[in-house]
Fold:
Amino acid sequence: MKNTYVIGEIGQNHNGSVDIAKLIIDVVTRPVIDKLFGNKLKGMDAVKLTKRDLTQELSNSQMQRPYDSPNSFGATYGEHREFLELSNEEHFEVYKYAKAKDLEFVETLCAIGCLDMLKLFTPDKLKVASRDLTNLPLLNAMAETKIPMILSTGMGGKKEIDNALETITKHHSDISILHCLSEYPSQYQNINLNTIKYLQDNYSDYTIGYSDHSIGISIPTAAVAIGAEIIEKHITLDRKMKGTDQAGSLGTDGINRMMRDIRNLNMAMGSEDIFVSESVKGSRVKLERSIATNKALEAGSVITENDLHMLSPGDGFKWAEKEYLIGKTITQDIPANEIIYPTHLK
Structure:
């Protein structure tokens, strides 16, 4: 069984609070139980935070524009963004908390200045947001660290992916590419999950996955069925919390259901083969049909095809084996509608 690598994207759903980030991690590490079979399943593999350097974020006029959205944490967009930023030290605190819970830790870095964080700790992976796929100076600086990188492609096509890969592979090739649609929430007719197959065919040297912004759990689960090896999904404590990403994220129950379905799907995929599973052999004997008498036959009778039909259980001769019966003499009386076994034959 191949386990899909699942990243719970906290992003900035912590609302500027380390404690909220830790509570989300607590939710992620709750046991995932399939109640039908009582199986304890593997939960998420990693959580992810986002770090911005506000001096390299937006133009001054955009940072100073009024921001009166119901989800605003400040009078201007700059104040809003500043409220949501955790310091490097706070990121380090969340990192240590996640690692103590046996989770890997991924950081989305949105500016070269954010690499200062790496003086404190080394994330397991660095994430490039869709909007920065064309930010080649940032990609180059991140690649120089030699930390494995994940690219989201929600705003780019083949040209943008190729340019990004050309930049990164000057330094290393430990790269994952995630199909993504930067529409929040994503409308289903725009998602085009078959792009995953395109990426697998055209970028087979890299790990291919899917970063989801749809509502619910069906689309990431379907992506796993197509072959996505990484799934990234926004997560939160409560979808009704203040914040632009909260409503489109998975809450506590959704996290559990998605992980249940993905892990069960991981088990269900199996191999490219056809065979009789050990688990159905009992059902096969009970339910499959065998050659049986359609009338009472006396000892010494010679079996003809007109004497036969098919009944359960399936522990006798199959119809494809009828030549072993036709023309044979039976050694004992067989009532109508009973299975014919080798012990009945002379």
